[in-house]
Amino acid sequence: MKIKPIEMDEQASPQPQTKNTRWLYFASTLFALACLGVIVFTWYRVYNAPPRPHPNETIVTTQNEVDNFLRAHVTEAQTDDPVVYIPTGIVIQSLEFKGPYTVQVAGYVWQRYANDLPPLDKGVVFSEAETTTFHKVYDAQQGNETLIGWNFKTTLREQFDYSRYPLDRQQLRMRIWHVEFEKDVYLQPDVMGYTTIEPSVLPGLDPGLVLENWQIERSYFSYRLIQYNSNFGIQGYDSDVPQPELYFNLSIKRFILSPLVSRGIAPLVILIQLFVIVMVIGTDNKRLEQFGVRPGAVIFTCAAFFFAILIAENALRDEVKWYGIVYLETVHVLTYFVILAVAANSVSLVAFPNLHLFKDNDNLWVEVFYWPTILLILLVITVLMFL
Question: What structural domains and CATH numbers belong to the chain?
């Protein structure tokens, strides 16, 4: 009697044996979407929140507020010359970032000098400017005062806070002094030169002003009390007394879409590709052959991803030049660790196939916890950063 040999199948790789596997995937998806929803909601609240004023500034929107502030903080004349107040106005016609901390501003500034004032040099100084050029464009007698206007172009160095990039808000400030700041001369907004100086109507800005990738939320005049530790070499100057200084301010916020696309797309795409690798790799040799995946190839792929993220992060840091890690950069840093984790997962599947984590369930638990872990970490970072 001829016995037919029994054909032995190749040893089957372990398949997930955990009960209710679909429910695990469903719970994983639900948790990940919940984390993503909270992150997006936090972004929405932060992006649409009203701008916060500087803690040491006093915003003035009417002539009464200007008079009350100066009356409360201007001391008696320290010389024989009387205290002088010069109404000053400004209109910005162009504004451009020349670097992360350098802004070029151009426009017009004017002043009104009463005829009965003591002799004074006329003009203003932007005290925080690198360079400034002025050209007088009009000088006219109006009633009992002289109106003088200049066209100006100045380059300002500002200290911006980019830690929340790309959800950052910035405050562009122009500190304005009189040219004879050593005397008791104080500047005040020329309220009569504007229809209103309410911040929401953007006083002092040309209607056609364009600032690439930024939205101007408001513009306004304010005062800050500044105390210097020097007398500037001026005899009789009391450096212990805070001096009220006039500021013209712009509150701006970044359009979020451009940086998300240009700086956030690289880590997002790599995280998705890493998840595809996690879904493919395992102890099922047939599936690995179908996709042409080998542990060694995964390691080289992860190395390529690592350098891609490194290049993207360097480009981001070159853009903002912030001394610390900005918010969006945390996604790049997190991606580094995910790359290392996926590489370690690939090696572990080969080196320790009988590990309890893989023995009965293949790579199920890594697949289930991939997105929830990433999004939970991003949620914690978001909460710590913004709330």
Answer: 21-47+258-386 (no CATH), 56-255 (2.70.170.10)
